[in-house]
Amino acid sequence: MNDPQPSPDAIEDADIEHLLNAQAGRLSWPELQRHFARGVVLRVAADLDLIAVAAAVVRDEKPKVQTWMELGKLGKADVADARRWEATAPDFWAVVAAPWVLVQETDN
């Protein structure tokens, strides 16, 4: 009855991850192309949790995001990515963390 209540920040954090997880889905390269053309695709390394990365972007956790970028585990998709994706036609797990679309290639 007198259980401690979670802080509002903890509730919000859990809600963000739950919402992002519910909105994540699979996309094909043709579906992703228009987002790439707009310059809003961020590729996420396979060894990272897509939802956790998206939540960090939404929360503006700059040190964490910067570290991933410096390690090459998170970055803006470039022309080399697009050429490879065009040639291999992978599927992606994707989630929107406005204005970004974060993607991870799937193993199919």
Give the averaged pLDDT, no decimals. Answer: 90
The rounded distance between the terminal residues' Cα atoms is: 47 Å
* Structural domains: how many: 1
Low-confidence stretches: 1-8
Q: How would you characterize the largest beta sheet?
A: 5 strands, mixed
Q: What pattern of helices and strands is seen along the backbone? A: HEHEHHEHEE
Give the overall shape, derived from the CA principal axes: globular
How helical, in percent, are the residues?
A: 40-55%
Return the structural class: alpha+beta
Order of strands, widest sheet: 1-4-5-2-3
Radius of gyration: 16 Å
Query: Count of helical segments?
Result: 5
Q: Report the strand count.
A: 5
Q: In percent, how much strand structure appears in the residues?
A: 15-25%
Give an overview of the whole structure:
This protein has one domain. A hairpin with a 2-residue loop joins strand 4 and strand 5. The N terminus is likely disordered. With 108 residues, it is of the alpha+beta class. The protein is globular, with a radius of gyration of 16 Å. The longest helix is centred in the first third of the chain and has 16 residues.
Summarize the structure.
The protein has 108 residues and is an alpha+beta fold.
Outline the fold blueprint.
Elements lengths: L7 H16 L1 E4 H9 L3 E4 L5 H9 L3 H9 L3 E3 L2 H10 L2 E7 L2 E6 L3
Parallel strand pairs: 2-5
Antiparallel strand pairs: 1-4, 2-3, 4-5
Helix pairs in contact: 1-3
